[in-house]
Write a structure and sequence with these properties.
By secondary structure, this protein is an alpha/beta fold. About 35% of the residues lie in helices and about 10% in strands. The chain has nine helices and ten strands. The longest helix is centred in the last third of the chain and has 14 residues.
Length: about 240
């Protein structure tokens, strides 16, 4: 599928969500699941490196990607597991549901982002919440024993990625049913919190151009969209 041009974007989005029109609550969630699960082109975990070079490209520095938690622009080629490199951050930590990196939720581009290796390690598989100690080398991020708070500029992004995963992955195809809840320290359960905080973050940090452009890029590669970027008001409609 070719990327969607910005001209006529509103019409494309309107048509895409036609089956969700007029629905709220569980009916809206069910309709959106059907929409974003159709026509998907799965991406292998190895191919995620190349995909992120496109979806997270820094428009001001060709050949670079923008890292999620630090905001640092870095050459896309500098990925791996070493200090100072970037790797593939699962915003919905893959241990929350133990879905690994088989093609499925573990390779869904809507929640995979480039992140500094060291900062990614600090986040680990922690839930999301407010508070904690400042994260070294990642101004504006905080962490404690059971939660992680990203910088203000991407709080809404993180929330909408988590809520997308809860709608997209509903327990089919041998994968777990992912759901947000309002606690932290969820361990290996297929859940991530804190829902009340994520809702607040989504409201406070509305989708910006970079997040919208990323949604378009993923639509062009993977073939589906994050509905909470296109319609952030649906967060409250589903999780009131």
């Amino acid at each position: 599928m070719e990327p969607v041009a910005h001209t006529g974007r509103a019409a494309v989005v309107s048509d895409y969500y036609e089956d969700a029109e007029g629905k709220t609550g569980p009916e809206l969630k069910k309709a959106l699941h059907g929409i974003i699960s159709a026509g998907v082109t799965p991406v292998s975990y190895d191919k995620v490196w190349d995909a992120l070079a496109t979806t997270d490209a820094d428009p001001d520095h060709p050949g670079n990607v923008t890292l999620l938690y630090t905001g640092r622009s870095q050459p896309a080629s500098e990925h791996g597991g070493g200090s100072g490199q970037w790797n593939r951050e699962h915003v919905w930590a893959k241990s929350h549901g133990d879905f690994g990196t088989a093609t499925g939720p573990g390779t869904d581009l809507h929640h995979l982002r480039p992140a500094d290796v060291t900062v990614n390690s600090v986040r680990g598989n922690k839930d999301f919440d407010n508070g904690g100690d400042p994260v070294d080398g990642a101004e504006g991020n905080y962490s404690d024993g059971d939660s992680f708070e990203p910088r203000d500029q991407v709080k809404g992004d993180v929330a909408r990625m988590i809520l997308y995963m809860a709608v997209r992955w509903e327990g089919q195809d041998g994968f777990p049913d992912l759901e947000p809840n309002d606690k932290v320290d969820n361990g290996s359960a297929p859940a991530i919190g804190r829902l009340s905080v994520l809702k607040a973050w989504s409201q406070e940090d509305q989708p910006d151009k970079a997040e919208k452009d990323r949604n378009e890029a993923i639509y062009g590669i993977q073939g589906n969209r994050n509905p909470f970027i296109d319609h952030p008001e649906w967060v409250e409609s589903i999780w009131s």
